[in-house]
Design goal:
The protein contains six helices and five strands, in the order βαβαβαβαβαα. The chain is of the alpha/beta class. Helix 1 runs parallel beside helix 5 and helix 2 packs across helix 3.
Length: about 160
C-alpha cells in the first residue's frame, strides 16, 4: 500500500493539512501525520526524513507557515519527493511561506502548491505515486473525469437557465 508522510510545523496547521489527509484516505493511500518543527525539533525532523523510506513512506508533504523551512530541511535529508504546503500566516498572508518554499537552493528541490493548498498537495502526492501504483493512476483518471463532467453539467445548467 502506498504511504505518504505528512508533517506540519505546528498543530495550528492541521486545518490546512486536513484536505490532503482526506483525499489521500479517499484514494486508499495510508498517511502518517506528525507535528514536527524545523526550528523547535530539528533532530526529530532529521530523524523523520532520514527514516521515511525505511518506514515505508514514498512521498512527504511538509506544511509550514512564516519562515516555512520545514520542506527544505526535510528535502535535505531524504531522496523522496517533498511537497511544500505553504500555510497562510497572519503577517504576510502566506506569501512569506510560499517564497520560502519555492526559493530552494539548487540540488534541494521542493515541489510547492498554493498557499493553504492542502487538497492539491494530496492530489500531487497521488499523481507521484500513480507512476508506481496503477490503481492510483486509474482512480486519478476517474477523479479528473468526474471533475470535467461536473463542469460540463454546470455549464449546461447555466446555459439553459440563462437563455
Amino acid at each position: 500500500m502506498a504511504k505518504v508522510g505528512i508533517i506540519m510545523g505546528s498543530k495550528s496547521d492541521y486545518d490546512v493539512v486536513a484536505p490532503a489527509i482526506k483525499v489521500l484516505n479517499d484514494f486508499g493511500v495510508e498517511t502518517v501525520v506528525r507535528i514536527l518543527s524545523a526550528h523547535r525539533t530539528p533532530d526529530a525532523v532529521h530523524s523523520f526524513a532520514e527514516n521515511a523510506t525505511k518506514d515505508g513512506i514514498e512521498v512527504i508533504i511538509a506544511a509550514a507557515g512564516k519562515a516555512a523551512h520545514l520542506g527544505g530541511v526535510v528535502a535535505a535529508f531524504t531522496h523522496l519527493p517533498v511537497i511544500g504546503l505553504p500555510v497562510k500566516s497572519s503577517t504576510l498572508d502566506g506569501l512569506d511561506s510560499l517564497l520560502s518554499m519555492v526559493q530552494m537552493p539548487a540540488g534541494i528541490p521542493v515541489a510547492c502548491v498554493a498557499i493553504n493548498g492542502g487538497l492539491n498537495a494530496g492530489l500531487l502526492a497521488i499523481q507521484i505515486l500513480s507512476v508506481k501504483y496503477i490503481d492510483l493512476a486509474d482512480k486519478m483518471i476517474d477523479y479528473k473525469k468526474k471533475m470535467a463532467e461536473k463542469v460540463l453539467s454546470d455549464e449546461e445548467n447555466f446555459l439553459s437557465e440563462n437563455k
